[in-house]
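Input/output pair, single chain:
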Amino acid sequence: MANEEDDPIIQEIDVFLARSLLEKLYLFQYPIRPASMTYDDVTHLSAKIKPKQQKVELEMAIDTLNPNYCRSKGEQIALNVDGTCTDETSTYSSKLMDKQTFCSSQAASNVSRYAAAVYKKGELHLTPLHGILQLRPSFTYLDKADAKHREREAANEGGDSSQDEAEDDVKQITVRFSRPETEQARQRRVQSYEFLQKRQAEEHWVHLHYYGLKDSRSEHERQYLFSQGHGLAENTELIKSPSEYLMMLMPPSVEEENEKPMAPSNVLSMAQLRTLPLADQIKILMKNVKVMPFSNLLGLLGSGTDPTAVLRCVQQVALLVQGNWVVKSDVLYPKDTSSPHSGVPAEVLCRGRDFVMWKFTQDRWVVRKEVAAVTKLCPEDVKDFLEHMSVARINKGWEFMLPYDEDFVKKHPDIVQRQQMLWMGIQAKLEKVYNLLKEHLTPKKQEAQSAHPLLVSGEQRVNMAKAKVKQNFGQLEKEFQRQKAEMKSNDSSAKPDVPNIRIKEEPVSLEEPMDTSAHEGLNNGLVNGLHPAQGPLDPVNGHLPGGCIDRVAQELKAFVSSTFKKQFVLTLSELKRLFNLHLASLPPGHTLFSGISDKMLQDMVLDTGCKQILVPFPPQTAASPDELKVYALWEAGDTYDQHRQVLLEIFSKNYRVRRNVIQSQLSQECGEDLNKQEVDRVLKVSFCSLW
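Output:
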């Protein structure tokens, strides 16, 4: 109040809004005017405008008689620009720089807050501005001078000889045909800087007529700056309530409202999260955490939340896996989205992730190669699926990240049963889509005993070992007798010394039981290709019985021959993997369980007609030694033997070869012209295991 009394109101001025020049009034901002320039010299001034771009060019006259004007400089500039000849295209017809060009640029993008004001007879008349343009000197005449200079240099270097003229008459012309332009290429071209510059250059100039400050037409146009009607009805914009006027002065920021997080993907505080409905809260939490026990979910939702309502909502966005809730795939991959790695649509991604979740309902461990082989997705997508719900363990696979929630399973059996029915439906769909084999559908033995890992004490482990020894002893003895009788009938000529064969019997006494549960379930019962608890052919002092060596060699040779007839080229690591799979499919007590070393396997490969291909891999390769050893069947007896041998010779010289080199080499060695499809067929047949 004291400040208002010290600053009293001296005068009240009526404000009027003029509309006659609305969207027609521009403000020109000139640079500091040189002393030699006269704005009022109308005879030497012209103007032109490009309306769409709001671009203006003005030519101002320069007073060449002014003492501040340097005449020698003006003559030199005119000579550099126009040369010695003068014609209609000359920039300076008087051979003197007597004018200056100004080009405009927009000073502000939003001019709605600016207006031109005229004060007259105690009234203030405002006219909104349509644009504010800054005029700056244009130096295009310097570009013209440079072009003239280059032309003179080219003329001097070219000479005037008739030979040069004759040579200039004959020129080579290159004809190019443009490719059909795609829609994406057209959009990129339209948005490019060159295209925008070209469009701006194509707009025609509109020449304007300049009227001076004291011209009668200027006086007439200046009257439009005043409001034509002083009635209040025509100036309703100026009649506002205080609140409306304050809103016009300080409008709410629309940009800030749009930038506020509208979805759970943005970072939200817990206070903001709890303002949302319960279903949205659960969806946000599950989408960000992905795997969560029910107790943790209740803790995040705050005290007082109804567990029944939470259970009802969480089943809409998550599935139960090992007693924990895992977010559904369609929540992470909505419809009409795709993979950032491979571009695969969301429907395929959801199917692949559902397969991974279903595998974790069967076992705590999942192998990434198995998932990739079934789903046929790229490794990056499969890795994303596994990282959502599991942790990688070296030399073991991917383990489900949370322990089995036994408390939730016991407290909510109805929910568990309902989720099992859902998983049965999902399993049926996966069987149809992926054609799942029986080995994919059958859970492992340890899962049939317990759905979750148990901590076994030492006493329990001893009792389990005793029971297993008693159970297996009779079976092992019967199996050995059967094998013994079979060996006698098949190898009667060898006559093995049966009394010297010692049977390795499992201990039955209660004092020293064998602990067999330590390695159970880790490697499917195989240790270096041997079943420790089921092998009836126990070596005596490191040697097999007489007829067993030949039988092992025959079985091994049969396996190697059949494998290389299916896949002509294999690395040692891949061959060992296939051999382990073959061992896993054999019944207990088979002769191959006697133990096959890597050297025996490699020698047998060479004995079956295969050759080792010394591929010159780069020294910095990350492959293992077994992956660097490549074996190939040299003669398979089919029509592609010659082609395959040529290919193996090529790859023995270089580990990476272009397709056109392979095609030319095959055509040269085999004496026939092979097209691209035939070369692809040869490569696929020869290297199907490595393709």
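The chain has 29 helices and 18 strands. Confidence is low (pLDDT under 50) at residues 161-167, 255-266, 445-454, 493-544.
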